[in-house]
Design brief:
Elements lengths: L1 E4 L4 H6 L1 H10 L5 E5 L4 H7 L4 E4 L16 E4 L6 H7 L5 E3 L20 H11 L24 E4 L11 H13 L4 E3 L6 H11 L13 H9 L3 E5 L2 H9 L3 E4 L5 H4 L8 E4 L5 H9 L7 H4 L3 H22 L1
Parallel strand pairs: 1-2, 1-4, 2-3, 4-5, 6-7, 6-8, 8-9, 9-10
Helix pairs in contact: 2-5, 6-7, 6-13, 8-9
C-alpha cells in the first residue's frame, strides 16, 4: 500500500494531480491511499488516481493509520519536519520526501521556495525515478448535478483576506458582464454567502444568482466544468477551471502566479497581478499586512474585462482549430 499525505484544500489537491497520477503509474497494482480532509473526497475521486481517502484534517504527531506499515509513504504536503515525522510515524518501508535534516530525512531533493507548486511535486517524484507530467492537470468530468450550465462564475471570496479583490469591483465587473450577455452567478463558502449577496445586490443580480454556501464540492466542480467563464482570486475555484479547461481570469496577490498560476502556455487562462512585486510586498508588510494586498487593489475592472475578452477569444480560436 502507498500512503500519500496532502492534508490541505481544493487548490492544493488540484495542483497535486500530476504527482498523484505519477504515483499511480509508478506503483501499478498497489492500493493508493490519500491522507486528506474527508470533505475533499468528491474531488479526490475526480483525479482518477486514488483508491481511497484516509480522513486527515491536518498535521498531527502520528497519522490515523490503523493498518500495517505502508510499503511507501509520500510527503506531498510540505517540506517538513512535521509532515515528515507524521508519515514516519506510520513506519513505512520507504519515505519519499524533500530533504530535511531536522526530521532526520537526508535523502530527497532540496526544497525550492520559488518553484511552481505543480512542478515541485513532479520534481520530487522524478528524483526518486517515478514518472510525473506537470501538464497532466485535467480532472474527470463530475457526475450530473442540479447546477446551471454555461454561466459565468464570479468567486469574490478567499479564506485569506489579502487574496480578495475588492467586492465593489466584483460588483462592477458583474454589471459589465451581465450587460454583455453573461449569466453571472456568485460562488463561495457558507461563510462567504454574505459577501456574495452584497456583490449581487450592488450588481443588480437576483438572489438566485448567489450560489455561495449552496453547493457541495461535487456540485461546484460540475458548475465550473460546464461554465462559460470563471473569474476569481488565487483560490480553489481557479484550479478547478484549469482542471476543466474552462476559460478563466485569475487575480493574483500576494502570492505570484509563477508559484500557483495556471500553465502559461494555455491562453484561455489569463492571470493579472503586478510583475515587479518587491517594493509592493515590502511596503505592504511594513504597513502591517492588513486587508487586500496592493497587487490586487492595483487591478482595475477594465483590465479584467480585457482579460475576459482574451480568454474567450482563445476559446473560440481553439474551437475553430479543432473543427
Amino acid at each position: 500500500m502507498i500512503l500519500v499525505l496532502r492534508a490541505l484544500g481544493v487548490g492544493d489537491l488540484a495542483t497535486a494531480v500530476p504527482a498523484l497520477r505519477g504515483l499511480r503509474a509508478g506503483f501499478p497494482g498497489r492500493e493508493l491511499v490519500l491522507a486528506a480532509p474527508a470533505w475533499l473526497a468528491p474531488l479526490v475521486e475526480l483525479t482518477g488516481a486514488v483508491d481511497r481517502v484516509l480522513p486527515t484534517p491536518g498535521l498531527a504527531d502520528r497519522p490515523a493509520w490503523p493498518g500495517p506499515p505502508p510499503e511507501v509513504a509520500v510527503n506531498l504536503h510540505g517540506r517538513g519536519p512535521r509532515s515528515h515525522r507524521m508519515l514516519a510515524g506510520a513506519r513505512p518501508g520507504r519515505l519519499l520526501a524533500y530533504r530535511n535534516a531536522e526530521a532526520g530525512h537526508l535523502a530527497g531533493p532540496v526544497w525550492d521556495d520559488d518553484e511552481h507548486e505543480v512542478r515541485r511535486w513532479c520534481r520530487l517524484l522524478h528524483w526518486y525515478g517515478l514518472p510525473a507530467d506537470p501538464g497532466d492537470l485535467t480532472l474527470r468530468h463530475p457526475p450530473p448535478a442540479a447546477v446551471p450550465a454555461g454561466v459565468t462564475v464570479l468567486h469574490p471570496g478567499s479564506k485569506i483576506p489579502a487574496k480578495r479583490w475588492p467586492a465593489e469591483r466584483f460588483a462592477a465587473l458583474a454589471r459589465t458582464l451581465t450587460a454583455r450577455g453573461h449569466r453571472v452567478v456568485l460562488t463561495g463558502s457558507t461563510d462567504e454567502r454574505d459577501l456574495a449577496a452584497r456583490v449581487a445586490l450592488d450588481a443588480g443580480l437576483p438572489p438566485a444568482a448567489v450560489l455561495a454556501g449552496r453547493t457541495g464540492l461535487a456540485e461546484l466542480a460540475a458548475l465550473v466544468a460546464d461554465a462559460r467563464l470563471v473569474v476569481s482570486g488565487d483560490t480553489g475555484v481557479a484550479h478547478l477551471a484549469t482542471g476543466y479547461g474552462t476559460a478563466s481570469v485569475v487575480l493574483f496577490g500576494p502570492v505570484p502566479p509563477e508559484r500557483w498560476g495556471p500553465p502559461p502556455d494555455r491562453p484561455r487562462h489569463r492571470v493579472l497581478g503586478a510583475a515587479d512585486r518587491d517594493d509592493i510586498d515590502r511596503d505592504w508588510a511594513g504597513s502591517g499586512g492588513v486587508g487586500t494586498h496592493p497587487t490586487l487593489t492595483g487591478i482595475e475592472v477594465d483590465e479584467v474585462v480585457a482579460a475576459v475578452d482574451e480568454a474567450e477569444r482563445a476559446v473560440r480560436v481553439s474551437g475553430a482549430i479543432a473543427a
